[in-house]
Amino acid sequence: MNFTMLVTAALTGLLFVPLVVVIAVLIAPRSFNPQKEEPYECGIPTRGRTWMQFRIGYYLYAILFLMFDVETMFLFPWAVVLRSLGVVGICSVLFFLFILVLGLAYAWRKGALVWK
User: Fold this and answer.
1) Cα–Cα dist 98/21, whole Å
2) Contact in structure between 86 and 93 (CB atoms under 8 Å)
3) Is 35 within 8 Å of 71 (Cβ atoms)?
4) Which of 55, 56, 78, 59 is nearest to 67 (CA)?
5) pLDDT digits over 100-114, tens only?
6) Which of 1, 43, 50, 115: disulfide with 39, CB 3.0–4.6 Å?
7) Helix H segments across the chain?
8) What is the C-alpha R_g of the chain?
9) Per-residue pLDDT of the chain (116 residues; tens, 9 = 90+)
């Protein structure tokens, strides 16, 4: 890729994005309704305070799920090329799984997996 192609692509991106945003603002339908300013919660009118605190357990479960989900997702490419990796590849994945199990044991020991 030469320099002129790179500059052309960059200028096209820099000019195209604002142009599309301006066109969307100009042609988008507008509706001014007081109900649009109210918080929406599954179609049911909210009762009480809209903003409330959630227990940290919800966030901890979500973070742990994402962490282990993403880490186990790394195992798929390894499984695809298992034969070509050899012993070094298998040892590296076993080390990866060991660290994954250590993280799970740490979360379990700290009580992060206990739903209260």
Assistant:
1) 48
2) no
3) no
4) 59
5) 889 889 888 988 777
6) 50
7) 3-27, 56-73, 75-80, 82-109
8) 25
9) 688 888 999 999 899 999 999 999 999 888 778 777 766 656 666 677 767 777 777 787 888 888 888 888 888 888 888 888 889 888 988 998 898 889 889 888 988 777 77
Query: pTM value?
Result: 0.48
Q: Both tokens of residue 111?
A: 């009580």
**CB-based contacts of 50: which residues, under 8 Å, 6+ apart?**
39, 41
Structure tokens at 68: 């282990």
Query: ∠ CA 105-106-107 to the nearest 5 degrees?
Result: 90
